[in-house]
Amino acid sequence: MYIGAILSCVFIFLFKKKKTYFITGITISMLFIMLNFLINIFRHKHSTFFSNHSTVWNSNKHNTTIPFYSSESGHLFLKAKIGNETKYIGFDTGAELCGFNENYNNSKKTTIISLTDSQNKTKNIRIQKLDKLTFKNIDFEKVDYISMNKDIWENECGIFFNQDSIAGVLGNNIINSFIWDFDMLNKTVKISEEIELQNISKFEIIPLLKSGKKSWSINIKVNGNRKRINLDTGFNGTLTIKDSIILQENYKYKIGHSNSIGLFSFENCYKKKDSSEITKKTQKGKRQIFADLKISNINFKNVLIEDTSNSNLIGVPLIWEYERVILDFLNGKMYLFNKNHSKSAKSISNISNKAREEFVKKNCTQDCS
Known about the structure:
Layout: H1 2-14, H2 19-42, E1 43-47, E2 52-57, E3 63-70, E4 76-82, E5 85-91, E6 98-101, E7 111-116, E8 122-135, E9 138-148, H3 151-154, E10 166-170, H4 172-175, E11 179-183, E12 188-192, E13 204-207, E14 209-211, E15 215-222, E16 225-231, E17 239-240, E18 269-271, E19 278-280, E20 287-295, E21 298-307, E22 313-314, H5 317-320, E23 322-328, E24 333-339, H6 348-363
Parallel strand pairs: 5-10, 6-9, 16-22
Antiparallel strand pairs: 1-2, 2-9, 3-4, 3-12, 4-5, 4-8, 6-10, 7-8, 8-9, 11-12, 11-23, 13-24, 14-15, 15-16, 15-20, 17-22, 18-19, 20-21, 23-24
Protein backbone atom coordinates (compact mmCIF):
# COMPACT_ATOMS: atom_id res chain seq x y z
CA MET A 1 0.00 0.00 0.00
CA TYR A 2 2.75 2.43 0.96
CA ILE A 3 4.67 1.57 -2.22
CA GLY A 4 1.53 2.36 -4.20
CA ALA A 5 1.23 5.74 -2.53
CA ILE A 6 4.89 6.55 -3.29
CA LEU A 7 4.44 5.56 -6.93
CA SER A 8 1.38 7.81 -7.12
CA CYS A 9 3.45 10.75 -5.88
CA VAL A 10 6.09 10.00 -8.50
CA PHE A 11 3.33 9.82 -11.10
CA ILE A 12 2.04 13.25 -9.99
CA PHE A 13 5.52 14.80 -10.18
CA LEU A 14 6.27 13.47 -13.68
CA PHE A 15 2.97 14.52 -15.14
CA LYS A 16 2.21 17.68 -13.20
CA LYS A 17 2.11 19.67 -16.44
CA LYS A 18 -0.52 17.39 -17.99
CA LYS A 19 -3.83 18.20 -16.37
CA THR A 20 -5.58 14.84 -16.97
CA TYR A 21 -2.67 12.75 -15.65
CA PHE A 22 -2.17 15.16 -12.79
CA ILE A 23 -5.80 14.88 -11.63
CA THR A 24 -5.66 11.09 -12.04
CA GLY A 25 -2.52 10.93 -9.91
CA ILE A 26 -4.06 13.09 -7.20
CA THR A 27 -7.17 10.88 -7.17
CA ILE A 28 -5.16 7.65 -6.88
CA SER A 29 -3.09 9.10 -4.04
CA MET A 30 -6.20 10.16 -2.15
CA LEU A 31 -7.67 6.68 -2.58
CA PHE A 32 -4.52 5.11 -1.11
CA ILE A 33 -4.60 7.50 1.83
CA MET A 34 -8.30 6.85 2.49
CA LEU A 35 -7.85 3.08 2.23
CA ASN A 36 -4.96 3.18 4.68
CA PHE A 37 -7.04 5.30 7.09
CA LEU A 38 -9.98 2.89 6.98
CA ILE A 39 -7.79 -0.13 7.57
CA ASN A 40 -6.18 1.52 10.58
CA ILE A 41 -9.63 2.23 12.02
CA PHE A 42 -10.70 -1.40 11.92
CA ARG A 43 -7.38 -3.21 12.42
CA HIS A 44 -4.68 -2.84 15.00
CA LYS A 45 -2.09 -5.03 16.64
CA HIS A 46 -1.91 -6.04 20.28
CA SER A 47 1.61 -6.94 21.35
CA THR A 48 2.22 -8.91 24.56
CA PHE A 49 5.06 -10.97 25.98
CA PHE A 50 4.00 -14.03 23.98
CA SER A 51 1.45 -12.75 21.51
CA ASN A 52 1.47 -10.32 18.60
CA HIS A 53 -2.00 -10.90 17.17
CA SER A 54 -4.10 -8.50 15.11
CA THR A 55 -7.53 -7.23 16.15
CA VAL A 56 -10.02 -6.42 13.39
CA TRP A 57 -13.28 -4.65 14.22
CA ASN A 58 -16.09 -5.23 11.72
CA SER A 59 -17.78 -2.05 12.97
CA ASN A 60 -16.48 1.47 13.48
CA LYS A 61 -18.02 1.47 17.00
CA HIS A 62 -15.19 -0.69 18.32
CA ASN A 63 -17.53 -2.69 20.55
CA THR A 64 -19.71 -5.75 20.28
CA THR A 65 -22.26 -7.38 22.58
CA ILE A 66 -22.60 -11.14 22.60
CA PRO A 67 -24.44 -13.69 24.77
CA PHE A 68 -22.51 -15.82 27.23
CA TYR A 69 -23.44 -19.22 28.50
CA SER A 70 -22.79 -20.79 31.89
CA SER A 71 -22.08 -24.38 32.81
CA GLU A 72 -23.47 -26.14 35.87
CA SER A 73 -20.24 -25.22 37.63
CA GLY A 74 -20.80 -21.50 36.92
CA HIS A 75 -18.00 -21.11 34.34
CA LEU A 76 -18.60 -18.52 31.61
CA PHE A 77 -18.44 -19.50 27.94
CA LEU A 78 -18.52 -17.24 24.86
CA LYS A 79 -19.80 -18.44 21.50
CA ALA A 80 -17.12 -18.03 18.84
CA LYS A 81 -15.95 -19.12 15.43
CA ILE A 82 -12.63 -20.87 15.54
CA GLY A 83 -11.39 -21.71 12.10
CA ASN A 84 -14.56 -22.78 10.25
CA GLU A 85 -16.27 -24.16 13.36
CA THR A 86 -18.72 -22.62 15.83
CA LYS A 87 -17.55 -23.47 19.34
CA TYR A 88 -17.68 -22.29 22.94
CA ILE A 89 -14.65 -20.65 24.57
CA GLY A 90 -14.22 -20.38 28.35
CA PHE A 91 -13.53 -16.89 29.77
CA ASP A 92 -10.47 -17.46 31.95
CA THR A 93 -8.63 -14.56 33.61
CA GLY A 94 -6.37 -17.14 35.26
CA ALA A 95 -4.86 -18.16 31.91
CA GLU A 96 -1.97 -16.02 30.67
CA LEU A 97 -2.49 -17.34 27.14
CA CYS A 98 -5.47 -18.70 25.24
CA GLY A 99 -5.62 -22.49 25.25
CA PHE A 100 -7.20 -24.59 22.49
CA ASN A 101 -7.51 -28.28 21.68
CA GLU A 102 -4.37 -29.64 20.04
CA ASN A 103 -6.59 -30.68 17.11
CA TYR A 104 -6.23 -27.08 15.88
CA ASN A 105 -2.43 -27.28 15.73
CA ASN A 106 -1.07 -26.33 12.32
CA SER A 107 2.09 -24.34 13.02
CA LYS A 108 5.34 -25.82 11.77
CA LYS A 109 7.40 -23.82 14.24
CA THR A 110 6.50 -24.14 17.90
CA THR A 111 7.75 -22.65 21.15
CA ILE A 112 7.93 -24.65 24.36
CA ILE A 113 7.07 -22.97 27.67
CA SER A 114 6.73 -24.23 31.23
CA LEU A 115 3.15 -23.89 32.50
CA THR A 116 1.83 -24.31 36.06
CA ASP A 117 -1.91 -24.96 36.57
CA SER A 118 -4.12 -23.91 39.49
CA GLN A 119 -3.14 -27.05 41.41
CA ASN A 120 0.55 -26.12 41.18
CA LYS A 121 1.34 -28.86 38.67
CA THR A 122 3.93 -27.90 36.02
CA LYS A 123 4.40 -29.26 32.50
CA ASN A 124 6.10 -28.18 29.27
CA ILE A 125 3.51 -26.97 26.76
CA ARG A 126 3.72 -26.08 23.07
CA ILE A 127 2.70 -22.63 21.81
CA GLN A 128 0.83 -22.65 18.49
CA LYS A 129 -0.72 -19.90 16.35
CA LEU A 130 -4.41 -19.78 15.40
CA ASP A 131 -5.24 -18.15 12.06
CA LYS A 132 -8.55 -16.61 13.14
CA LEU A 133 -10.88 -16.38 16.14
CA THR A 134 -14.18 -14.45 15.85
CA PHE A 135 -16.65 -13.09 18.41
CA LYS A 136 -19.50 -11.55 16.39
CA ASN A 137 -18.11 -8.16 15.20
CA ILE A 138 -14.50 -8.68 16.24
CA ASP A 139 -11.83 -10.89 14.69
CA PHE A 140 -8.49 -11.93 16.18
CA GLU A 141 -5.87 -13.06 13.70
CA LYS A 142 -2.65 -15.00 14.29
CA VAL A 143 -3.41 -15.66 17.95
CA ASP A 144 -0.79 -17.45 20.04
CA TYR A 145 -2.28 -20.23 22.15
CA ILE A 146 -1.35 -23.12 24.40
CA SER A 147 -1.83 -26.50 22.76
CA MET A 148 -4.17 -28.34 25.16
CA ASN A 149 -3.82 -32.11 25.39
CA LYS A 150 -6.73 -34.02 23.86
CA ASP A 151 -6.99 -36.01 27.11
CA ILE A 152 -8.63 -32.92 28.62
CA TRP A 153 -11.65 -33.85 26.45
CA GLU A 154 -11.23 -37.63 26.27
CA ASN A 155 -10.05 -38.59 29.76
CA GLU A 156 -12.79 -38.93 32.37
CA CYS A 157 -10.87 -36.69 34.78
CA GLY A 158 -10.26 -33.96 32.15
CA ILE A 159 -11.86 -30.59 32.77
CA PHE A 160 -13.75 -30.73 29.43
CA PHE A 161 -14.46 -34.46 29.38
CA ASN A 162 -17.05 -35.36 26.74
CA GLN A 163 -17.71 -31.68 25.90
CA ASP A 164 -16.79 -31.45 22.23
CA SER A 165 -18.65 -28.15 21.81
CA ILE A 166 -15.93 -26.47 23.91
CA ALA A 167 -12.77 -25.56 21.98
CA GLY A 168 -10.73 -24.26 24.92
CA VAL A 169 -10.29 -21.05 26.93
CA LEU A 170 -9.78 -17.36 26.21
CA GLY A 171 -6.66 -16.13 27.99
CA ASN A 172 -5.19 -12.81 29.04
CA ASN A 173 -3.23 -12.26 25.82
CA ILE A 174 -6.65 -11.25 24.41
CA ILE A 175 -8.66 -10.45 27.55
CA ASN A 176 -6.26 -7.75 28.78
CA SER A 177 -6.79 -5.54 25.72
CA PHE A 178 -10.47 -4.83 26.42
CA ILE A 179 -13.22 -3.85 28.84
CA TRP A 180 -15.68 -6.70 29.55
CA ASP A 181 -19.12 -5.57 30.72
CA PHE A 182 -21.04 -8.61 32.03
CA ASP A 183 -24.82 -8.44 32.44
CA MET A 184 -25.27 -11.47 34.72
CA LEU A 185 -29.09 -11.37 34.62
CA ASN A 186 -29.50 -11.27 30.84
CA LYS A 187 -26.28 -13.23 30.25
CA THR A 188 -24.63 -10.89 27.77
CA VAL A 189 -21.18 -9.34 27.70
CA LYS A 190 -20.11 -6.18 25.91
CA ILE A 191 -16.54 -6.16 24.62
CA SER A 192 -15.21 -2.64 24.11
CA GLU A 193 -12.27 -0.28 24.38
CA GLU A 194 -14.15 2.45 26.31
CA ILE A 195 -16.09 2.17 29.56
CA GLU A 196 -19.72 3.30 29.83
CA LEU A 197 -20.92 4.48 33.26
CA GLN A 198 -23.59 7.00 32.26
CA ASN A 199 -26.68 7.36 34.45
CA ILE A 200 -25.27 5.03 37.10
CA SER A 201 -25.28 6.31 40.67
CA LYS A 202 -23.90 3.50 42.82
CA PHE A 203 -21.28 0.81 42.37
CA GLU A 204 -18.30 -0.64 44.16
CA ILE A 205 -14.85 -0.21 42.60
CA ILE A 206 -12.19 -2.86 43.24
CA PRO A 207 -8.63 -2.08 42.06
CA LEU A 208 -7.18 -4.73 39.75
CA LEU A 209 -3.48 -5.17 40.43
CA LYS A 210 -0.92 -6.57 38.01
CA SER A 211 0.19 -10.08 38.93
CA GLY A 212 3.11 -11.43 36.93
CA LYS A 213 3.27 -10.58 33.22
CA LYS A 214 -0.42 -10.73 32.35
CA SER A 215 -2.55 -11.85 35.31
CA TRP A 216 -4.53 -9.79 37.83
CA SER A 217 -5.07 -9.84 41.58
CA ILE A 218 -7.11 -8.04 44.23
CA ASN A 219 -6.55 -7.23 47.90
CA ILE A 220 -8.83 -8.93 50.42
CA LYS A 221 -9.05 -9.78 54.12
CA VAL A 222 -9.69 -13.29 55.46
CA ASN A 223 -10.69 -13.28 59.13
CA GLY A 224 -9.16 -9.80 59.30
CA ASN A 225 -5.81 -10.78 57.76
CA ARG A 226 -4.72 -9.01 54.56
CA LYS A 227 -4.04 -11.14 51.50
CA ARG A 228 -3.44 -10.59 47.79
CA ILE A 229 -5.44 -13.03 45.67
CA ASN A 230 -5.35 -13.77 41.93
CA LEU A 231 -8.60 -13.17 40.05
CA ASP A 232 -9.28 -16.43 38.20
CA THR A 233 -12.62 -16.79 36.40
CA GLY A 234 -11.51 -20.25 35.27
CA PHE A 235 -11.79 -21.36 38.91
CA ASN A 236 -15.32 -22.16 40.11
CA GLY A 237 -14.50 -22.16 43.84
CA THR A 238 -15.18 -19.19 46.10
CA LEU A 239 -11.65 -18.72 47.48
CA THR A 240 -8.44 -20.69 47.99
CA ILE A 241 -5.46 -19.56 50.07
CA LYS A 242 -2.05 -21.06 50.71
CA ASP A 243 -2.06 -20.26 54.43
CA SER A 244 -3.61 -22.38 57.13
CA ILE A 245 -6.38 -20.72 59.13
CA ILE A 246 -6.36 -21.26 62.88
CA LEU A 247 -9.89 -22.26 63.83
CA GLN A 248 -11.59 -21.03 66.97
CA GLU A 249 -12.33 -23.51 69.72
CA ASN A 250 -16.05 -23.06 69.17
CA TYR A 251 -15.83 -23.69 65.41
CA LYS A 252 -19.14 -25.41 64.59
CA TYR A 253 -18.82 -26.78 61.08
CA LYS A 254 -17.37 -30.02 59.81
CA ILE A 255 -14.06 -29.60 57.96
CA GLY A 256 -14.36 -30.96 54.44
CA HIS A 257 -11.84 -31.86 51.75
CA SER A 258 -11.34 -30.06 48.45
CA ASN A 259 -12.26 -31.45 45.03
CA SER A 260 -10.49 -28.68 43.09
CA ILE A 261 -9.10 -29.64 39.69
CA GLY A 262 -6.68 -28.01 37.28
CA LEU A 263 -5.61 -28.09 33.65
CA PHE A 264 -3.67 -31.32 34.16
CA SER A 265 -6.36 -33.04 36.24
CA PHE A 266 -6.62 -35.87 33.70
CA GLU A 267 -3.36 -37.21 35.14
CA ASN A 268 -4.77 -37.40 38.67
CA CYS A 269 -7.11 -40.35 38.31
CA TYR A 270 -6.96 -44.01 37.41
CA LYS A 271 -9.16 -47.06 36.94
CA LYS A 272 -9.03 -49.94 39.37
CA LYS A 273 -8.17 -53.30 37.89
CA ASP A 274 -11.20 -55.24 36.67
CA SER A 275 -13.41 -52.22 37.31
CA SER A 276 -14.80 -49.30 35.41
CA GLU A 277 -14.71 -47.11 38.52
CA ILE A 278 -12.67 -43.92 38.27
CA THR A 279 -10.65 -43.05 41.35
CA LYS A 280 -9.13 -39.60 41.89
CA LYS A 281 -5.84 -39.32 43.68
CA THR A 282 -6.19 -37.76 47.11
CA GLN A 283 -5.23 -34.13 47.57
CA LYS A 284 -3.11 -33.97 50.70
CA GLY A 285 -3.41 -31.09 53.12
CA LYS A 286 -6.26 -29.21 51.48
CA ARG A 287 -9.42 -28.63 53.47
CA GLN A 288 -12.64 -26.65 53.21
CA ILE A 289 -13.77 -24.47 56.09
CA PHE A 290 -15.82 -21.32 56.71
CA ALA A 291 -14.22 -17.92 57.23
CA ASP A 292 -15.09 -14.23 56.97
CA LEU A 293 -14.12 -12.46 53.74
CA LYS A 294 -13.82 -8.72 53.11
CA ILE A 295 -13.26 -7.17 49.66
CA SER A 296 -12.94 -3.38 49.82
CA ASN A 297 -16.12 -2.30 51.67
CA ILE A 298 -17.95 -5.60 51.02
CA ASN A 299 -18.24 -8.10 53.87
CA PHE A 300 -19.09 -11.78 53.54
CA LYS A 301 -19.74 -13.84 56.68
CA ASN A 302 -18.98 -17.57 56.89
CA VAL A 303 -17.73 -18.05 53.34
CA LEU A 304 -16.79 -21.56 52.24
CA ILE A 305 -13.07 -21.42 51.41
CA GLU A 306 -10.14 -23.76 50.91
CA ASP A 307 -7.03 -23.18 53.00
CA THR A 308 -3.62 -24.91 52.92
CA SER A 309 -4.07 -24.82 49.14
CA ASN A 310 -1.64 -24.60 46.21
CA SER A 311 -2.67 -21.11 45.09
CA ASN A 312 -4.22 -17.85 46.23
CA LEU A 313 -7.29 -17.60 43.98
CA ILE A 314 -10.72 -16.01 44.01
CA GLY A 315 -13.01 -17.53 41.41
CA VAL A 316 -16.01 -16.87 39.21
CA PRO A 317 -18.54 -16.98 42.14
CA LEU A 318 -17.45 -13.37 42.85
CA ILE A 319 -18.74 -12.41 39.39
CA TRP A 320 -22.05 -14.23 39.99
CA GLU A 321 -22.53 -12.32 43.27
CA TYR A 322 -23.63 -9.22 41.28
CA GLU A 323 -26.13 -8.28 38.59
CA ARG A 324 -23.52 -6.46 36.53
CA VAL A 325 -19.74 -6.67 36.60
CA ILE A 326 -17.31 -4.61 34.52
CA LEU A 327 -13.75 -5.87 34.22
CA ASP A 328 -11.80 -2.86 32.98
CA PHE A 329 -8.36 -4.29 32.25
CA LEU A 330 -7.32 -1.15 30.37
CA ASN A 331 -7.49 0.96 33.54
CA GLY A 332 -7.09 -1.74 36.19
CA LYS A 333 -10.54 -1.58 37.80
CA MET A 334 -13.45 -3.91 38.53
CA TYR A 335 -16.94 -2.39 38.95
CA LEU A 336 -19.62 -4.29 40.90
CA PHE A 337 -23.30 -3.30 40.55
CA ASN A 338 -26.24 -4.50 42.65
CA LYS A 339 -26.25 -7.78 44.54
CA ASN A 340 -27.61 -10.72 42.55
CA HIS A 341 -30.56 -12.20 44.48
CA SER A 342 -31.08 -15.14 42.12
CA LYS A 343 -31.07 -18.41 44.08
CA SER A 344 -29.71 -20.28 41.07
CA ALA A 345 -26.59 -18.14 40.62
CA LYS A 346 -23.29 -19.83 41.48
CA SER A 347 -22.38 -16.92 43.75
CA ILE A 348 -20.19 -16.77 46.86
CA SER A 349 -23.28 -16.35 49.07
CA ASN A 350 -25.32 -19.13 47.49
CA ILE A 351 -22.46 -21.65 47.50
CA SER A 352 -21.60 -20.90 51.13
CA ASN A 353 -25.22 -20.90 52.34
CA LYS A 354 -25.91 -24.22 50.65
CA ALA A 355 -22.80 -25.79 52.19
CA ARG A 356 -23.78 -24.61 55.68
CA GLU A 357 -27.35 -25.82 55.27
CA GLU A 358 -26.17 -29.24 54.14
CA PHE A 359 -23.86 -29.48 57.12
CA VAL A 360 -26.61 -28.51 59.58
CA LYS A 361 -29.00 -30.99 57.99
CA LYS A 362 -26.57 -33.92 58.07
CA ASN A 363 -24.47 -33.36 61.15
CA CYS A 364 -26.13 -31.18 63.77
CA THR A 365 -27.93 -32.80 66.70
CA GLN A 366 -28.26 -29.43 68.40
CA ASP A 367 -28.47 -25.78 67.40
CA CYS A 368 -25.37 -24.94 65.32
CA SER A 369 -26.75 -22.11 63.24
